């Protein structure tokens, strides 16, 4: 499977360009693509940046030379980010050498004028990049780069292995066997009393099941595990917006969406996750550190919960400290 990155022009406009001087840009990219770009960076060639220049002077200078443009923003670097509305304005801006008697250079923005996509196609594995570019030019593709990976210091073409994994090996592995009642009860006991999903089956209801009902639930989970068929209703969720503390309730971006999924789905996921974590720790696939008790999960200064790592009873700050000490 050949995998290439194609830089295209969104809606037939723009180009992905590197920060270089304008003469080298015009040598590498056709003027057609340069003039179709809509976002440009104006850099001051002499003296300081535009940080100390009056915004009114900048606006008057652009209006006198280019006309009414869409937007002008002072970037953190001190350069100007200009968005034009028409191709004619783009051409006039590229030809500009002075802005209010200040020497400048104008470059298309390196990222805002293009969209990047990944093409995975086995028929393109042995096709040169230049031929791929020529074949996709009618779709406004202006640059193509093949993805490579390094193995033993050698760069090789990337082959995406989409072959389905065969779980039916000759030697039975313990992590592929059926779940037992202990794993089910442990998953239910460790779950918090969260709101149920669309099926309205809560953890409290599941914990009150008798032994016969638990046997039936375990049989259902093992059928899903063996037959590798994920129930379609479990792929649905109820979205509830929760207002962030101290935010304006009339402003929609101040809400945090919460997805309520099936508790049955989360139970079997917790059972699978317990097996995966055990195997990863057993085979040293994830780093193991000495378990240390955290005196409290509460931050006494502000009353908020500290962010925790996925390992039980370990904080993120402990592992960040260990990482820093190892540098």
Automatic annotation (TrEMBL):
Example GO molecular function term? RNA-directed DNA polymerase activity
| Top-level taxonomic group | Eukaryota
Query: Keywords assigned by UniProt?
Result: Nucleotidyltransferase, RNA-directed DNA polymerase, Transferase
Q: Give the protein name, as stated in the record.
A: Putative RNA-directed DNA polymerase from transposon X-element
Carries keyword Transferase? Answer: yes
